[in-house]
Recover the amino acids of this structure.
């Protein structure tokens, strides 16, 4: 086909310009994922019975703030990578700073106590299930975000998938906080981050396959 | 922007202008495969059309267009290199593929030379010259010192003799 014929043909479809805002799509996808993830944690994992008491501790709110910050930084990265010709942006540094910051807090915390106590802080009471739970809870979120990205045009599919996985992991961490009694920095820096990292890896793998266009 | 708002003539004009830039952009990067450039221009235009909702007025249009073109280019090169790696170069197999034919040809040529050797030189040489080496009657005449008419006659007689002897038409 001649290129000019193709252009003429495409021009006849010009009126059908879709006007769905990427931001709205992202918000819809995230909301759907959060809803499913919340339903899962409440039905299968169950609400932490001591959540009320936990909510009066400072450490709990540091944890929540840390996860919220990570989400806030990761969200624009996903949005940027969804569109051609836009750099991932400063959000990457924000996410990195959040992760490094928590690692720093954890180190300070462990350094201040003896080795046994440090180990106890790191392992908490639920280290075996923490990362896996976060990964499981982030599955609906990652699915929703990948669906959103498929409707966009990510020119770096693996990176876009990885950022979606990280965002899904961070949101899932927030959701899991409703169940999880752990608030030690050392615990978060290892097991929460491990859950997010696994999801980032899964997202990268899925992204490089599912996000081609 | 008007082009994206659904105004067909300006959309067509914008696509035409973009296709020019794309052609130049892709030509520079696909110099080893110039025959693919137009395909890729069309593919990129199609992608631009399908993904036009991802363009927002807060970003430079060229960055958006070239990012799509680069993506399609990388995709294309990757697919091409896959094809190349699957493509088995026939030269690698030439020996196995043609070995039978080579032998046949060699056998046949041995037979022919054996047959011809039974003919007298004045018939054999013109036949070898014209039928096997592809020379003209005049060249054969020069090489053998015979006249052109004699060459023709000797070829004819030689072939006739072979036919009579072996019962096959040449």
């Amino acid at each position: 086909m001649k290129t000019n014929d193709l252009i003429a043909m495409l021009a006849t479809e010009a009126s059908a310009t879709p006007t769905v805002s990427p931001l709205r799509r992202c918000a819809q996808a995230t909301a759907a994922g959060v809803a499913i993830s919340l339903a899962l944690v409440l039905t299968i994992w169950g609400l932490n019975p001591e959540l009320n008491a936990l909510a009066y501790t400072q450490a709990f709110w540091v944890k929540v703030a840390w996860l919220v910050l990570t989400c806030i930084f990761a969200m624009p990265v996903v949005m940027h990578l969804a569109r051609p010709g836009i750099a991932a942006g400063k959000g990457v540094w924000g996410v990195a700073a959040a992760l490094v910051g928590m690692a720093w807090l954890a180190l300070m915390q462990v350094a201040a106590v003896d080795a046994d106590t440090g180990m106890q802080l790191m392992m908490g009471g639920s280290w075996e299930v923490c990362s896996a739970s976060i990964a499981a809870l982030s599955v609906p979120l990652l699915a929703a975000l990948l669906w959103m990205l498929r409707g966009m045009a990510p020119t770096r599919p693996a990176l876009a998938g990885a950022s979606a996985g990280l965002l899904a992991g961070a949101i899932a961490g927030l959701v899991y906080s409703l169940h999880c009694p752990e608030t030690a920095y050392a615990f978060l820096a290892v097991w929460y981050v491990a859950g997010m990292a696994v999801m980032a890896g899964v997202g990268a793998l899925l992204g490089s396959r599912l996000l081609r266009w | 922007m008007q082009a994206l708002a659904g105004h067909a003539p300006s959309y067509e004009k914008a696509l035409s202008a973009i296709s020019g830039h794309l052609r130049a952009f892709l030509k520079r990067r696909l110099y080893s495969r110039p025959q693919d450039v137009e395909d890729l221009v069309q593919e990129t235009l199609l992608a631009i059309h399908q993904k036009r909702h991802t363009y927002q007025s807060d970003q430079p249009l060229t960055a958006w267009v070239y990012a799509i073109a680069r993506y399609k280019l990388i995709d294309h090169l990757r697919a091409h290199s896959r094809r190349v790696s699957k493509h088995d170069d026939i030269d690698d197999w030439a020996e196995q593929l043609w070995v039978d034919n080579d032998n046949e040809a060699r056998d046949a040529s041995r037979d022919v030379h054996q047959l011809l050797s039974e003919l007298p030189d004045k018939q054999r040489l013109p036949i070898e010259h014209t039928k096997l080496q592809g020379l003209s009657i005049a060249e054969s005449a020069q090489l053998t010192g015979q006249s052109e008419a004699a060459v023709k006659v000797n070829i004819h007689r030689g072939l006739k003799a072979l036919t009579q002897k072996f019962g096959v038409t040449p």
The CA atoms of residues 145 and 151 of chain B lie 9 Å apart. The helical segments of chain B are 8-29, 37-50, 61-86, 90-116, 121-132, 137-144, 148-166. Chain B touches chain A through 37 residues (CB under 8 Å). The longest helix of chain B spans residues 90-116.
